[in-house]
Amino acid sequence: MALREIPREKIPWYPTVDADVCIGDRQCVEFCKNGVFEWDEDRNRPVVMNPFNCVVGCSACANICPVDAIRFPSLQEIRDVIRRLREEVTAK
Prior knowledge:
By secondary structure, the chain is of the alpha+beta class. It has helices spanning about 25-30, 60-65, 75-90, and strands at about 15, 35-40, 45-50, 70. The chain has a single domain, classed as Alpha-Beta Plaits (2-Layer Sandwich), CATH 3.30.70.20. Helix content is about 30%, strand content about 15%. The protein is elongated. The model has no long low-confidence stretch (mean pLDDT about 95).
């Protein structure tokens, strides 16, 4: 069964930004071509505005962050969620 048979909104794979660590260099906003991040002028930091635009398994933005302010769930956690969702789809 392909991943595309599971609605993207059910897969909790998206970044979180640690505001205490973020230096506001905007690299994540500029780097992500899927529009996951937007710049919040009021808080002067990136915010995850479109979490489900994030490609499941992609963590490239975390890799380019110079201060490791971007986190993702563990891959094992996501595998477990996907496995459970696949079982639900096939049981229908």
